[in-house]
Design a protein that fits this description.
The protein is mostly helical. The protein folds into 2 domains: 214 residues, Rossmann fold (3-Layer(aba) Sandwich), CATH 3.40.50; 80 residues, Tyrosyl-Transfer RNA Synthetase (Orthogonal Bundle), CATH 1.10.240. The chain has 14 helices and 5 strands. The strands form 2 sheets. A 3-stranded parallel β-sheet has the order 1-2-3. Strand 4, helix 9 and strand 5 form a beta-alpha-beta unit. Helix 3 crosses helix 13.
């Protein structure tokens, strides 16, 4: 038996922030030796909520793939693709759309959530409603057995399973019903203002940020609002800086907590400690990124090779699909 196959993807948003790294990318890197991995830049998905302006998609794709490589994704171990290079995704989405009941899409919780979050945007389109079908095509084109996702994406995996089940019932068994692969070790880092880390909030730290930028962003972090003076005891559990220390300064955590609650160290010094710890972790990523940036053709070469490998697999799947549907 070979390794189980997985597929996952990210929309091309440009350089990744630390929330992206700890929320998904780090687990992708860790699973490369145990799974047959397909990772995609899902640029068609970017059009579902951002179809008006496509000017940055290509450059965002390049920047994001460089971040993937800098973090440790290895094109010798994983197939790295750009979704729009694999036309089989689009054909399979079209065929799946013929058998997917409208009610399945309308009841999808993420559809309702995004309608609320993006209120005022003109996103009432066929593509936006149907993007979970495209996601199912992304996964099932490779007959992936597992999908690494966060909890918020579980409804999409379940819909993929339902589409696979319906296709297998209507025609003949072709697709597995993929399982969600939840990362139990995922670390949710807050933004520097204490809210969810997000580019839309401007409260992020890039995983490729230079040392000086890291120091500046850490210096802006919100701390315990009740600690007014240096001599006041702190409350680490309500401090954004301490939330980062729990990830980046694990060995020193008891001392950091004691220094804070005992008012032995002020917030400014605590932030300096964090900046040093953060930069120690990020420097190898920065170094690798600089080396990758020196080769301007590297990303396209990797995506071209990934497309070749992926189309061979997806093409065989589509042959089975057409045969099963007698078209």
């Amino acid at each position: 038996m070979g390794k189980p196959r997985v597929f996952s993807g990210m929309r091309p948003t440009g350089r990744l922030q630390l929330g992206n790294y700890f929320g998904a990318l780090k687990s992708w890197v860790d699973m490369q030796d145990d799974y047959e991995c397909y990772f995609g830049v899902v640029d068609w998905h970017a059009l579902t909520t951002g179809y008006e302006d496509t000017s940055e998609i290509r450059e965002n794709t390049r920047e994001m793939v460089i971040d993937w490589l800098s973090a440790g994704l290895d094109p010798e171990k994983s197939v790295i693709i750009r979704q729009s290079d694999i036309k089989e995704h689009a054909e399979l989405q079209l065929l799946f759309s013929m058998i997917t009941p409208l009610g399945w899409l309308e009841r999808c919780p993420t559809y309702k959530e995004q309608l609320h979050q993006l209120e005022g945007r003109d996103i009432m389109t066929y593509g936006f409603l149907g993007y979970p079908v495209l996601m199912a095509a992304d996964i099932l084109a490779y007959k992936a057995e597992a999908v690494p996702v966060g909890e918020d994406q579980l409804p999409h995996v379940e819909l993929t399973r339902e589409i696979a089940r319906r296709f297998n019932f209507l025609y003949k068994p072709v697709f597995p019903e993929p399982q969600a692969l939840l990362n139990r070790d995922v670390t949710l880092l807050p933004g520097i203002d204490g809210r969810k880390m997000s580019k839309s909030y401007g409260n992020y730290i890039l995983m490729s940020a230079e040392a000086k930028d890291v120091e500046e962003r850490v210096g802006m972090m919100v701390t315990d609002p009740e600690r007014i003076r240096r001599t006041d005891p702190g409350h680490p559990d309500v401090c954004t800086v301490y939330a980062f220390h729990k990830v980046f300064s694990k060995d020193e955590l008891p001392q950091i907590e004691a220094d804070c609650t005992g008012a032995r160290v002020g917030c400014v010094e605590c932030k300096r400690r964090l900046a040093r710890a953060l930069n120690q972790v990020l420097e190898p990523i920065r170094e690798k990124r600089r080396a990758l940036m020196a080769n301007p053709d590297l990303v396209e070469d990797i995506l071209r090779d990934g497309a070749r490998k992926a189309r061979a697999v997806a093409g065989r799947t589509l042959e089975e699909v057409r045969s099963a549907m007698r078209i």
